[in-house]
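Sequence design from tokenized structure. All designs in this work follow the same two-part layout: the structure record, then the generated sequence. An example of the structure record is given first.
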């Protein structure tokens, strides 16, 4: 296991964590081991989610990303170790307090049958309600705001199960936003979305972070989107964190090889100057086909 980026950034050097430099963290994991029956999926994992930052978790299929997120959102109990919220074991924090601090959008959420978009988004307000309290102006504002910012207002009266995959995904994001939690855990929020809506959702997440100070942890598959939108990148493989840190330090050809087993080159992103991963082993040409010429050496056509 290489952990060089961690060693040079979050952990503060080879002598161990330098707590004075470490960003504050309301949400963390200590020695977290997660299992399904007898099968361990996440093994002894430590993580400090930096407050007020966007953390993106990347890694190959089945490496334990969703399992980790579910445990951070208290949908899964640790086999060993703990998730800490404000220094308290998550299991010991009252459910309502967890739900007011932490919103989780799972990878494959299931909506109640025949529920409308408006009603589903409104369910995000449940942690804020009491049995003696009417639906408040604050509830209304939060729902309207969440639906506006995800572009689902016109869908309010439609049944969720009649929507396209991308529309449905935005409705779920609206529900998570309506919960108005300081910590937001999003498992692949861009799945099913076309490229314009992917960028829209990621920009929205960043705005929530930059303008409203929300702490975000999200799982993304696209390494280049991860590099663009993460302040803190966490790379997992086989249930462990193999590297973490700011993307411009964490994303290297070595990391891509180690985590995904993929040869790649990392070049400056022409838009942001950050790292851009380009899979780097060209496919052999088909027999008899002319050799391909790298774009940079092609002559301009008149
Ligand atoms: N409810 C479950 N019961 C049993 N095994 C599970 C369950 N959920 C996940 N697993 C297993 O745990 C491992 C990790 O799954 P997880 O969903 O955390 O992976 P992931 O990194 O999110 O993958 P993906 O990128 O495909 O979403 C996989 O081998 C998976 O089969
Ligand atoms: Mg997953």
């Amino acid at each position: 296991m290489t952990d060089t980026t961690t060693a040079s950034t979050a952990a503060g050097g080879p002598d161990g964590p330098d707590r004075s430099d470490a960003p504050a963290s309301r949400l963390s994991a200590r020695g977290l081991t997660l299992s399904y029956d007898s099968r361990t999926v996440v093994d002894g994992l430590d993580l400090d989610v930096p407050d007020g930052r966007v953390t993106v978790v990347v890694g190959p299929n089945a490496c334990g990303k969703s399992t980790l997120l579910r445990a951070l959102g208290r949908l899964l109990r640790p086999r060993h170790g703990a998730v800490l919220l404000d220094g308290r074991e998550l299991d010991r924090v009252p459910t309502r307090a967890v739900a007011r601090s932490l919103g989780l959008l799972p990878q494959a959420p299931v909506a109640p049958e025949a529920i409308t978009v408006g009603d589903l988004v409104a369910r995000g307000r449940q942690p804020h309600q009491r049995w003696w309290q009417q639906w408040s102006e604050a509830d209304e504002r939060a729902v309207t705001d969440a639906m506006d910012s995800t572009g689902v207002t016109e869908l309010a009266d439609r049944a969720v199960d009649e929507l396209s995959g991308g529309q449905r995904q935005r409705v779920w994001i609206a529900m998570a936003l309506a919960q108005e939690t300081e910590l937001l855990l999003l498992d692949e929020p861009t799945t099913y979305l076309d490229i314009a809506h992917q960028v829209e959702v990621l920009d929205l997440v960043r705005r929530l972070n930059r303008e409203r100070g929300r702490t975000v942890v999200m799982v993304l598959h696209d390494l280049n989107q991860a590099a663009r939108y993460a302040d803190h990148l966490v790379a997992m493989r086989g249930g462990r964190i193999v590297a973490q840190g700011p993307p411009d330090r964490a994303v290297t050809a070595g990391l891509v090889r180690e985590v995904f087993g993929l040869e790649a080159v990392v070049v400056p992103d022409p838009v942001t100057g950050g790292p851009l991963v380009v899979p780097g082993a060209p496919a052999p040409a088909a027999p008899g086909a002319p050799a391909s010429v790298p774009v940079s050496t092609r002559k301009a056509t008149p």
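Confidence is low (pLDDT under 50) at residues 1-19. We note this feature because it recurs in several other targets discussed in the main text.
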